Queue: 2 jobs
Job 1
Amino acid sequence: MKWFDGIVDLYNSLANNRNATSNNIISSNRVDDGQLNEIYKTGLGNKIVRVKAGYALKSNALNFSSVEDKTFYLAKLEAKVKKAFKWSLVFGRGIIVINDGTDLSLPLEDVIRGNVKFDVFSGDMISVTSYEMDLSGSRYLQPEFYNVRGYNFHYSRVIDLTYVEVTDQDAPTYNYGGLSEYELIYNQIVNDGIVERASASILEKNSSLFYKIKGFKTALENKQESNLVKFYKMAEDRRSIHGAGLIDADDDVINVSQSLTNLKEADDISLRRIALVTGIPLPMLVGESVGGLNSAGTQEKTSFNEMIELLQQDYLVAPLNALFGKLGMSTVSFKDNQNVTPLEKVEYETKVIDNAVKLNDMGYDAETYMKEHGVQGKSKDDFTSEFTLLDDVENF
């Protein structure tokens, strides 16, 4: 099949043959779970997941409706949710199974959250045995049963954290789950590995020796080069920076120094592409200070915070509230301006309080406004604790 862009040079066929858009197409293949696991075990792949999952699910990132809900989440759910989200980044899916001690293949009934056990499984262990095929159904192309190591889980017991959504056409290929973060940056991960491997090899061979051996070509033609190779291998094994090699006087040795041309530029390109796709700014990805005169990293920090907020809104709010709803807990939301320094937090809270005072003067609900913006405190007119203390003293 040929591709055309609608413009043809009638006089220069060479220009037509070299047209990049006419001779190239975009293609992609699904990365298998084994390869995704190997990327997860690399330093760069692991750091990307740790940064995204760690910042998106920080302990102070959520607004809870009650102290009881917050206490239960921190004690029983926080580690499970973070683990499931981490697997969704790695494999495109991570699930939390609500185990109340009954048959897991049956629909979930009302549960007492204190008696529930939570199990987390990664996407590479999960298969879908059946899914909703009714186009008008509320769960169209969503699993009805999840299978892990031969055990079936009814969908009502499963909180399914999937990452980037795929099209209906690709849904069966991805087991009705999502795309992995690693699949999105697979080409960049491979390119970075090539640059890393090449730089080490060039450094190792920065100064290479080439032996001029008389009759070597003839020996190759007669398949008699093995003894020569064996001899020079022994000589190379004995050569080091603190010793000299011994060779025949009739042979010649030349030294060729290799320069690391454009290695830094190639390394920067591969890392920039990874930063582009992951949304993690390059200075934060590699852990270096922001360059440039008078640069405080404000833009980088803003971009990073926006990326984290998008993760929370697109991939975490709905699963969290689904989990809370099954456990009889109130809905939660993520706070604004989570990843700020203590000084920035004070300045932000000062502005929120000033606005709350103005809203209160106008007759609006200032307390709700402060709560929605993550600023909570006790009113100066609240004497409940003082009266409670006096009652305790009198009863004592």
Job 2
Amino acid sequence: HGLARWLAQLPSRAGLRLRIGLNLPPDFRDRRPEIVFFNRFEYQLALNLLRAACPGLKWYAETRELAEIFHPLGAVGVERKRLPTRVIDRLRPAPPPDRPRTCFLPGEVRPEKGAEFLINSVVAIAAQQPSWLGKLRFRFTSMTLLPHVADFLRQYPVLFELLPDTSMDRNRYWALLHDADLVSCCYEPANYVARASGIFLESLAIGKPVLVSPGTSIAAEAVAHGNSYALPVTYGDVGSFAAALDAFMQQPEAFAAAATAVSAEYRRQLEPATFFDWLLADDAA
């Protein structure tokens, strides 16, 4: 609304081009019906005001699902564009090949990120003594980890590796991502039915296979690629999680090779030059 008011105050809008990213749906982090209804109303009003204020307006979103959500709210012709980031290649030597493999859960340990599901599932599966026990570790960073969660993880040092990071710069993040053999993007579907995941995209940009949850836009993209680099895990289903881990540990090199095969395409999508070439392109071209 503020942007629409500012545009209306300009002495002239001739030749002005505006690009707006639509990446947070009306139910972002709060799915109460009254909140979603209010957010949809506010979006619809703002998008219509912006469309009227600037004829040279284009919309973009990171996923097809987001485009479909915003279309009835007034965003017509939404283009699919990734938010750019600079992919950093390996900064240090690769870990020794005989070490336990690592499943990495980057970012904040939040329920919608699948942290509680992953932790409780791993503990339950480990009690059954699976073949991968001792050959696969689950790594967490602890930037926002609650003390009782950290204490719980420390009870299982064979399974969980808790890194004492109170901050995370880009180099540290990419170094940890490179060290991973498998990255968990097993997110709660209700929160990721339309949203994109930077971790998912960045993992594939460096050839890391991923865990994904059916019912998310992330899993839909993996299915479109034949699921060759992604292991589906039904969110909340411990048996499904166990089957995915068993499948990965039986042929980790095959999943890594499949992820590497698509890494160049994901790098291209994330390349800042790709985004800014589109952003600054002459509409008449």
